[in-house]
Amino acid sequence: MESATGVQILGPQQVAVLVGVGATVFLVVFVVAFRYVYRRHRVFRSGLRGTGRVLEVRGARVMERRSVTERPTDRVVVATAAVPGGVLTDQKLPAGEYHPGQEVPVVQDPRDPRRLYVDRPDLERPAFMVYAMAGGLVIFPFVIVRGLAQLLS
């Protein structure tokens, strides 16, 4: 369709296709994010707890150091008996609290010893937030289908 000014206007079916493609991309990204958050939550809930030794402390990335919304953070490489070479943890730990040689409590995935975190539950998402994401994942397809049905009717 074309308007009086010559601008191309999309019909309802074309808009529906665009919304469907956008919703599919969003859903895939959301599923990947949920899987990451849930796996991390599962490790904290039922992982193997023990101690590890900090091998290296890495400062925050440039964008994190210049952030006005977050406090400065560090990332640490922690070695355990299962992974003596160390693992870079996927956590933003408060800057200045850790130093090489320090013993720290850790939690480790029993299936994959390279999934290792410093045992700091205060830095993790509450269980409610993890399961709220699951609820959104279930509800999202229904919302999209209902919206598309209204658009096409």
Description:
With 153 residues, the protein is an alpha+beta fold. It has one domain. It is 42% helix and 21% strand. It contains 3 helices and 6 strands. The chain has helices at residues 12-46, 62-65, 127-152, and strands at 48-59, 73-79, 87-88, 93-94, 103-108, 116-118. Strands 1, 2, 3, 4, 5 and 6 form a 6-stranded antiparallel β-sheet that branches. Helix 1 (12-46) runs antiparallel to helix 3. The radius of gyration is 23 Å and the shape is elongated. The protein starts with 11 loop residues before the first helix and ends with a helix.
Largest sheet: 6 strands, antiparallel
| Overall average pLDDT | 84
Task: Find the count of extended strands (DSSP E, 2+ residues).
Answer: 6
Helix content: 40-55%
* Count of alpha and pi helical runs: 3
Radius of gyration: 23 Å
Order of helices and strands: HEHEEEEEH
Distance between the termini: 18 Å
- Class by alpha and beta content: alpha+beta
What is the percentage of strand-forming residues? 15-25%
Number of domains: 1
Low-confidence stretches: none
Described by the principal axes of the CA atoms, the overall outline is elongated
